[in-house]
């Protein structure tokens, strides 16, 4: 049996209920931890489910944030230090990763609060998550204000990728399922994956 | 063992190889069919893996497109008719869904080419995909040019949602795994999911 929800029914929902619905209705999402630091070395770690591929040449990833949320420390740090990290989440750390969404004060690092381990390498200023199996170093490139609801899109360029050696295919495909990367639905539902098939490039 | 890919190594990759890498490195992605029509009734159906939640009040979803790609018919239709549909993909139709990415001429509807069935309801101008278990009616709201690489972000407002009645939770969460929705990694790897857990709202 099929149910229909109209625009007015959606708008009449209680705010938290509508947030659950609209966050889950767009499909499964990437989920990752963004690590950042201010220029004084105060670190921040926050979970995001809006990371999207913008282009491959140059290699660009974006994510969306709301400036009035817990994400504001991440935004301030990125604008301050210009670099950040994107760290994949696996089944061993998803509960700690989720906990970074709690509203900690600026002076509390979510690394300390959750027990995830900051890792520094190759003189990159922002902290990686040691427990993440795939880690990406990013340089901030562009901030786009989305006027319709005052959200912000941040675009960054990939400077380095760290990954398990056996997960990169000859054709360039990174087997993130093999690496243990998980997905999220809505605000709080975490999922492992099971591959159906890789399909060939489609021709008419 | 861990491997590192630096920016210059990524830029030196063959173009298709780099596309596979960067499309897969951001994590699992939503994947859905966008149905559209021009004002003469010529329909188009295209697969997108960049659908992202922009906000819940009002309910907004975005996606990214490249104007020089097969996606250009979708863009022209949306700007022409102002309405489109987002249709979830399940394991029964993912091969047909993938086939919509082939470069068909404008006068060929991907519905005809792939055997997916257009469905019209409630006088909404754009076609839904009958075989999709979750269907969303969208009104075009905003087009944002991403200057760094000339991609385009399209933002639309949800006007209606059609879904299996037993998939909506009391708290508003839509159980898309129960509905059979799948995810994609990279350009061509399709995955079912298996829930780990829904977690509570995080507090410090």
How do the strands and helices of this protein lay out in sequence?
The structure is a homodimer of 204-residue chains.
Chain A: E1 2-6, H1 7-12, H2 15-25, E2 32-37, E3 43-48, E4 52-56, E5 59-65, H3 72-81, E6 83-88, H4 94-99, H5 110-114, E7 118-119, E8 128-129, E9 135-146, E10 151-164, E11 183-185, E12 189-198
Antiparallel strand pairs in A: 2-3, 2-6, 4-5, 5-10, 6-9, 7-8, 9-10, 11-12
Describe the 3D structure.
The structure is a homodimer of 204-residue chains. Chain A has 204 residues and is an alpha+beta fold. The two termini of chain A are 35 Å apart. The first copy, chain A, has helices at 7-12, 15-25, 72-81, 94-99, 110-114; strands at residues 2-6, 32-37, 43-48, 52-56, 59-65, 83-88, 118-119, 128-129, 135-146, 151-164, 183-185, 189-198. The longest helix of chain A is centred in the N-terminal third of the chain and has 11 residues, at 15-25. In chain A, a hairpin with a 3-residue loop joins β11 and β12 (189-198). The model of chain A has no long low-confidence stretch (mean pLDDT 96). In chain A, the strands form 3 sheets. Chain A has a 7-stranded antiparallel sheet with strand order 3-2-6-9-10-5-4, covered by helices on one side. Chain A has a two-stranded antiparallel sheet with strand order 7-8. The first copy, chain A, has 5 helices and 12 strands. The interface between A and B is large, with 113 and 114 residues.
